[in-house]
From TrEMBL:
<dbReference type="Pfam" id="PF01023">
    <property type="entry name" value="S_100"/>
</dbReference>
<dbReference type="InterPro" id="IPR013787">
    <property type="entry name" value="S100_Ca-bd_sub"/>
</dbReference>
<protein>
    <recommendedName>
        <fullName>S100/CaBP-9k-type calcium binding subdomain domain-containing protein</fullName>
    </recommendedName>
</protein>
<feature type="domain" description="S100/CaBP-9k-type calcium binding subdomain">
    <location>
        <begin position="8"/>
        <end position="47"/>
    </location>
</feature>
<dbReference type="InterPro" id="IPR011992">
    <property type="entry name" value="EF-hand-dom_pair"/>
</dbReference>
Length: 92
């Protein structure tokens, strides 16, 4: 019997699952696919973002060399940056 995961472990498993669904065998995804994934998975936050300039700048970075690949570390980096500029908790 496996030990029960904490809420943070469950959340991180979900983030990893999304990455694994979208990545290649080399455990990377192209920037254009990352942008598409972020728009789909973070749609509500992105639409309700108060700092639209910052949001747009982050997403624009993914347009530079769209065929370049990102690994999981970079995936989490972009998710975190968008969360920081889009989630209501950080917009107080």
């Amino acid at each position: 019997m496996e030990p029960q995961m904490s809420k943070l472990e469950e959340a991180m498993e979900k983030v990893l699952d999304i990455f694994k669904q979208k990545c290649t065998r080399s455990q990377t995804m192209m920037k254009k696919d990352l942008k598409r994934t972020l728009r789909a998975e973070l749609d509500n936050w992105l639409q309700n973002c108060k700092d639209k300039t910052k949001r747009d700048n982050i997403l624009r970075e993914l347009d530079e060399n769209p065929h370049d690949c990102v690994n999981f570390d970079e995936f989490v980096y972009y998710v975190t940056r968008l969360m920081m500029c889009s989630h209501y908790y950080f917009q107080k």
